[in-house]
Amino acid sequence: MAEEDSSQEKTEEPTSRKLEKTREEGNVVRSKELNTSAILIVSAICILVFGPLMGNTLMEVMRFCFDFDARASWDTNISGEYFLASIYAAFTALLPFFALLLLTALAAPMSLGGWNFSTKALAPKASRMNPFSGLKRMFSMNSLVELLKGWGKVIVVATSAILVLFGLKDQFLSMIFEPTPNAIAHASRTLAWSFLLMACSTLIIALIDVPFQIFSHAKKLRMTMQEIKDEYKSSEGKPEIKAKIRQLQRDMANRRMMSDVPEADVIITNPTHYAVALKYKPNEMPAPLMVAKGVDMVALKIREIGGEYKVPILELPALSRSIYHHTEIGGEIPEGLYIAVAQVLAYIYQVEQWKKGNVQEKPQEPSYPIPNDLRQDT
């Protein structure tokens, strides 16, 4: 079986159960290039937006730390206060920057594979420590793709850096003639915009990597026909087991049904193929109920139990077939058969009275009318 499975190609789309199981194991489509690109771009935007505030705050912290009475440096309490105040000011200035980076690091993966938390992904696996598996991964197609992506990132980022430097060459040269504070502010803005442009260049790699990761993930999840059959057997149960369960259920139902046969008022037979057992309590039931029915061996068993408990048996082929096909076990007979069944019960009652000597003449068996829509020829 293993050889047959390995020879089959994985051409079938994954089942819903396979997709669910894969997510439970923490195996969802992800793109490291998308995450890296998003973090770099958001970092550049944060520097442009919060950069002046962070720079001014850090400058004030430095001025605060160095501009105080030298004698206070010998007082550990004052030094501690200066230190805590500096930490608080720096943390407050950098908090928006790191908060946005944290949100980006969480949102970027979710944008592709959605939210997925799985402890199974953290579980140790022996295959990860197998050196042969490691060598196989090193020389796999995935490793080749990662190598090409690495070279691609170097080429794209280096090219964008060269273009940015050449494009901003005049601005960098003009800073020589600016006052020092203005030159520093100008250089900071220029470097921030350069960082943003180079970060945006990584989108090229991300736009190539995202479709590749989606395709690669879908290809890994494909299944062979044998895998689909095995999954169906494991989830739905093997056909042999299901057939055995159905057989046991039928046997249990038959035993329950047979236990009701002794309480029947009459058994109507085909005479050999069909048998139905009817029960009627005038003061308790609106219509006669069928307590048991069967064909062939089951019908024979019904007749045997009926004979053992002296339940009257009548051979009425047409009526037995009609009741069998149009009535469920435990259900009332169809309205169209009321007259026929009433005549059967009346005839049974008259025969019993004749056997007891209450009636002199043996009753004549009446006709049993069956509507055409309820008649069963076979």
Jot down its keywords.
single chain, 378 residues, mainly alpha, name from scop, four-stranded mixed β-sheet, 66% helix, disordered N terminus
Structural class: mainly alpha
Helix content: 55-70%
Q: Span from first to last CA?
A: 47 Å
- What is the CA-atom radius of gyration, in angstroms? 44 Å
**Count of the separate structural domains:** 2
Strand coverage percent: 5-15%
Number of strands: 4
Number of helices: 14
Shape: elongated
The major sheet is characterized as: 4 strands, mixed
In the predicted model, the low-confidence regions spanning at least 5 consecutive residues are: 1-7
Would you tell me the overall average pLDDT? Answer: 79
- Helix and strand element order: HHHHHHHHHHHEEEHEHH
Strand order of the largest sheet: 3-2-1-4
Region (Disordered): 1-26, 359-378
Organism: Reinekea forsetii
Pfam families: Bac_export_2
Keywords: Bacterial flagellum biogenesis, Bacterial flagellum protein export, Cell membrane, Cell projection, Cilium, Flagellum, Membrane, Protein transport, Transmembrane, Transmembrane helix, Transport
Summarize the structure.
It is found in: Cell membrane. The protein has 378 residues and is mainly α.
Tell me what you see in this structure.
- By secondary structure, the protein is mainly alpha-helical.
- It folds into 2 domains: about 200 residues, no CATH class; about 100 residues, name from scop.
- About 65% of the residues lie in helices and about 5% in strands.
- The chain contains 14 helices and 4 strands.
- It has a 4-stranded mixed beta sheet, sandwiched between helices.
- Helix 3 packs antiparallel against helix 4 and helix 7 packs antiparallel against helix 9.
